[in-house]
Write a structure and sequence with these properties.
Length: 347
Amino acid sequence: MCDRIEIHGYGAILGAVLIGGVLEGILGLGAAWWRKLVPPIVSATVVTAIGFSLLPIGANSFGGGFGHPEFGDARFLIVGTITLVSCLIFNIRAKSFYKQLSVLFGLFVGYIAAYFYGMVDLGRLTEVSLVSLPVFMPYSPEFHYDAIFSVFLIFLVSATETLGDTSALAAMGFNREAKDREISGSIAVDGFVSAVSSLFGCLPITSFSQNVGLIAMTHVVNRKAIASGAVIMVLAGLIPALGVILASLPEAVLGGCTLMMFGSIVVSGVQMISRCGYSQRNMSIAALSLSIGLGFTQTPQIFRIFPELLRSVFAENCVAVVFIVAVLLNLVFPKGEEEKAAAGAAE
């Protein structure tokens, strides 16, 4: 895929994102079709895989960030620990709904600690403009079938992660399965918004699995609260100074906050599996799909004989591999009387 893009240039990326996003959005409108492929045991397994896939990200942030020349330095570990302990103490000591502010409190304390360790860089504040407005079509999109096909495959993978995120949010925020309209809306928006972003020269937009951990810890799913976060992100894009301040948050601080959050996703996935029942069929689907998805992607050389396109999509994306294996196993393994009864009740 990378070779194709290098041949055609950045315009080919935008053209492929535009078409791929529209196609994913159209597929997302058919929620009933997705529901048939993704029964509760598949969703539960994918959520568990999302949690496991995020654990290395939290650990890398805790140590200073991917590729940092001083990764694992004592100051990163100290700041990460201060942040994590602050989150835990606040969560234990706070009463009522104030517990939901534990992550914000940890970020605040960790940011102060990082500042005294010289890890906060606000030097770019003097270099940015006061306001920055988006430019419509800064690059002309180009349409090449090979690039479109490659990017569309990635959109399908993104759709599986979005579906898993939606299932996890419904389970942890509302203690129920995601509804058809919620699955349809999340996948459709994932695609259509990505298509719109390409018109402004941007890469695709996708669901952010890290937010699942935030919901698991705070249980805040209020639309006004989520919309407030969206407004802050928009303002960070329009006002570069605000963006610089948000970007100055050190990786170690994020790592201290996210360790617990990501672990919560794993626990939530296991809880979802337990609600599906510990039948032989369910255990086989969960065990084998997690073993293949997590095991193979930790040893990406096993994909060596596959075409470059498939390697680039699946070799290091355990969630996509877990999803595909779980769907195939769900179709292959015969359903017992318990699964047939549950399927009939769902219909």
